[in-house]
Amino acid sequence: QVQLVESGGGLVQAGGSLRLSCAASGRTAAMAWFRQAPGKEREFVAGIMWSISTYYADSVKGRFTVSRDNAKNTVYLQMNSLKPEDTAIYYCAAAIMWRGQDPDEYDYWGQGTQVTVSS
């Protein structure tokens, strides 16, 4: 069992930046970020397979960067040029192997952290 703890959410103005962190209690090959806005389904944001491959949703490409520190079992999501439509609860997820963009394929989840972008 792997436990995930997110941090770094908050309130920021449009155009601003935030960095989310997700600390894992164990090592997993694949880690990803999802988000869920009120009334919407949970959607894939970004993912990383070890430190080799990264994946992004089209909506965040060029603005968000996912990275990880394997020594600390921590994954980060640097979010720049934030937009009001980025407002959501952001969740960290992990899996033994890369699972793509379907949230149902992930084995472990954090509790989520709120990101609010004001216009």
The shape, in one word, is globular
Structural class: mainly beta
The oligomeric state of the chains shown is single chain
Helix content: under 10%
Count, helices: 0
Q: Note the gap between the termini.
A: 40 Å
Walkthrough of the structure:
The chain is mainly beta and 119 residues long. The protein has no helices and 11 strands. The chain has strands spanning 4-7, 10-13, 18-24, 30-36, 43-49, 53-56, 64-69, 74-79, 88-95, 108-109, 113-118. Strand 5 (43-49) and strand 6 form a beta hairpin. The chain is globular. The mean pLDDT is 95.
Short description:
The protein has strands at 4-7, 10-13, 18-24, 30-36, 43-49, 53-56, 64-69, 74-79, 88-95, 108-109, 113-118.
What attributes characterize this protein structure?
single chain; 119 residues; mainly beta; 7-stranded mixed β-sheet; 4-stranded antiparallel β-sheet; 11 strands; globular
What's the SSE blueprint?
Blueprint: E1 4-7, E2 10-13, E3 18-24, E4 30-36, E5 43-49, E6 53-56, E7 64-69, E8 74-79, E9 88-95, E10 108-109, E11 113-118
Parallel strand pairs: 2-11
Antiparallel strand pairs: 1-3, 3-8, 4-5, 4-9, 5-6, 7-8, 9-10, 9-11
